[in-house]
Amino acid sequence: MARVLGIDYGTKKIGLAVTDPLQIICSPLTTVPTREIFDFLDNYLKEEVVECMVIGDSLNTDGTPSQIAHLVVGFVRKLKKLYPNIEFAMQDERFTSIDARQIILQSGLKKKKRRDKSLVDKVSASLILQAYMEGKRGWNSGMV
Known about the structure:
CATH topology: Nucleotidyltransferase, domain 5
Largest sheet: 5 strands, mixed
Strand order of the largest sheet: 3-2-1-4-5
Shape: globular
Number of strands: 5
Helix content: 40-55%
Structural class: alpha/beta
CATH architecture: 2-Layer Sandwich
Strand content: 15-25%
Number of helices: 5
């Protein structure tokens, strides 16, 4: 099987997360400066098979598009043009940064490491990817 890549878009940095080839485990991958993302993806896709990219849908808490939503739309449009053989999906990213900070705080990392914004970005990407994968498997459907 191929991997699924999670993307937490930001105007300065983009957090990335990825599944294992069997699509069981979601793990933070890296954080890339936004201006370098397409070079990074070109190189990554030469090494790994990715069947789907899941991009965080930038929404306000009330569900309306955020201030950067139009940038995310443009980013996704360019991704689709550059990588036509890959599926794309949007995943609600509300509260992922808050959840990521809480996870990092509970991890026991030292204060200096916890303040590293790039860590928050890639953990957020992992949470976006995890939510997508759980939804795909029906784990969030309320069924037992």
